[in-house]
Specification:
mainly alpha, globular
Length: about 220
């Protein structure tokens, strides 16, 4: 019953906030243009893969954009509780809103990147299996990062603090990755076998379930 009510409220939210699609499109466009800068018809397969999934771009552009989106769509506790009357519905709202917004951003980014590659004719050099495996890992990593953001926002009671702490965590993982130590969040930046990629995705999904469970607990204990 609570889930049904939460879904109904989310439909109304997206119905009255259609401008978010424009905002998502603008951010996805900016990120795709930056990541595709320098790619041409002569770019080789592995150079193309490395350019599209550059760790530095995801650290300073892609992930910060997704975090910004998540924090902007999360309403204050007083507004949510006044509208719903129960913290359980607030949890479902946070869960669904974050997952839907992040999936939309990922799909828009993917579409815009493919359009750019088609225009430059670089798409003929694309290794589609490798590309799609990396995209799945990006999406799962993106969900994990943003569920962590929501947990930090609730725990710290500050969107700015959640943004700073999450980015510092990503920066630390980035430094580990550039020193050739494997990290799950940036696993998409290194070409991998299908089995290795699937294993990384499974571990990321496990971490997502833990973060969602933590989000549920924090929302339950949240005080006005």
């Amino acid at each position: 019953m609570l889930m049904k009510q939460a879904i109904k409220q989310q439909r109304m939210w997206f119905k009255w906030h259609k401008q978010w699609l424009v905002f998502l499109g603008l951010l996805a466009f900016c990120s795709s243009v930056l990541v595709c800068h320098g790619i041409s018809a002569t770019t080789g397969t592995f150079a193309l893969q490395n350019s599209l999934f550059d760790r530095f771009h995801f650290l300073v552009v892609y992930f910060p954009f997704t975090i910004l989106i998540t924090l902007l769509v999360q309403q204050t506790r007083s507004v949510d509780i006044a509208a719903t009357g129960t913290r359980r519905i607030i949890f479902y709202q946070r869960l669904m809103r974050t997952a839907i917004i992040q999936t939309e951003f990922c799909l828009l980014w993917l579409l815009l990147v493919c359009v750019h590659l088609s225009i430059t004719a670089a798409i003929v050099h694309m290794n589609w299996l490798l590309f799609l495996m990396s995209m799945v890992t990006v999406w799962v990593s993106q969900l994990l990062v943003n569920f962590i953001v929501v947990c930090l926002m609730v725990h710290l009671r500050s969107k700015i603090a959640a943004l700073i702490v999450t980015w510092l965590i990503l920066a630390g993982l980035f430094l580990i990755a550039v020193n050739h130590i494997p990290t799950l969040i940036f696993a998409f930046s290194v070409p991998q076998t299908p089995l290795r990629s699937a294993g990384n995705d499974v571990m990321l999904i496990g971490l997502i379930l833990l973060s969602v469970s933590r989000m549920d607990a924090l929302t339950t204990k949240e005080v006005l």
